[in-house]
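Example 3.2
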Amino acid sequence: MRKLSLFAVGLLLAGTIHNPAAQATGTPIVANASSAWQTNAPVQALHVTKGKVYVGGKFTKVRPPGAAAGTKETARSYLAVFNATTGALEPINLTLNGQIWSITSTPTGSRVFIGGDFTTVNGETHHRIAAIDTATMKLISSFRTSVDWRVKAMASYGSVLYIGGAFNNVTVGATKYPRKRLAGLNNATGGVLAWVPKTDDADVHAIDVADNGSRVLVGGDFKTVNGTSRYGLASLAPYPNTGVLQPFKASGAMPQPTPGCVSRVKDIETYGDRVYVAAAGDGAGCFDGTFAAKVSGLGDLVWKNYCLGATEAITYVKGWLYKGSHAHDCSKNGDFPEGPWGNKFLLVQSITTGRIGPWVPNTNATGDTQVGPLAMATGGADLWVGGDFTTVNGKGQQGLTRFTGLGNGVAPVKPVKPSVTTPTTRRVDVSLPATTDLDDTVLTYRLLRWSMGQLVTSKTVVSTFWWKPKVTLSDTSLAPGAKVQYRVEVTDGKNTVRSDYSAVVTVK
């Protein structure tokens, strides 16, 4: 267990760590994990289109919800497809010989592209990129663009498929095109376009295109783009431009690497006039957080969140930014410090301030990464999460899970048995520490007298897993000598729990 920093201890003692970003009663997505199939190894890529969820990674088998590891398995080599509404496994079963790192689709969803380390699909030669027809759910054999090394990131806009990764060349037919870490393809034919930006020898991990098509945002751990110093994040002019660098002030939010500290961009999400960026650092205290910038103008920085614990994936859903990370200290932004609660692998942030919001389900972290969530995707009203985990909210669930806006959400944790005191005549104070809820921070506490549940009074209190103020409810309508007993009822507006009964107290 990590020790609290002196800074965090000071904030706790001063009572200044709070969470105004989480004052809302909840987010559109509840913290209950919905039924989902599982994988036998990590999920590294997710994409939702045309009512289906495309899942890629290192796995070779999938199994139904609730099935133990190694049981009821169905073969799926590195790619599985599920119904986005029911979660049911779809019959498409392509055979790949290597893992998938990225998935995207055309804007219309007519075809899906997969990228990774594979060199064959269904026995056909498809070097590290392939296309699927979403109407027939079959491999498009004619899409035979060949990439000489890993395709780690993809984004499609209009007729262009932008790809990034660790490659140096892209080949179509007998023609080889030098393309260092970045390339633009015709998404119908696979033809290589005259979009020719290039980074140094470091990899590209993330690509996204602004909703209005004005910018292609690329991220990784590169130090130069087109020979110009640009660490980790760059904005490029889209095709038919050749991919020149664009002014983007928020690129400066990525700290320059030092011998003991290297951060890299792992994910980029664009929505409207905003670009959201996720970073992961190597080294104590390195930048692991997120930031937001404007698409318009010069790309000014809007906010920056300094949570420690590498951020691997982010997704915008209905006014909130959901993130997968292993956050353990967000005190620099006034949120939780390091403490006995350990890492928080799933969080939500305010898109206005970047502060941590009222949604904290959790996974564990296993395997090679020890990170947990590695990929996120949404169909607009749900959230799919893939990664290197074997539990979700303490229950067995490997590799893949999903959250929706359906149902009442998670109930508050049962409050502890309250204490009772009689500080003055005719008054009883009933006190207990605030409880918590995985998808609400604003809870209502009701004081109930005796087993009949007579409502005495109520109050609304804000609490989080790291901030549990003392709650005191007073009963002032009592006769001296009366013997009374209480319990406290807590509700998030949809779910209600009750404490055990307090001790019996005699009123002064």
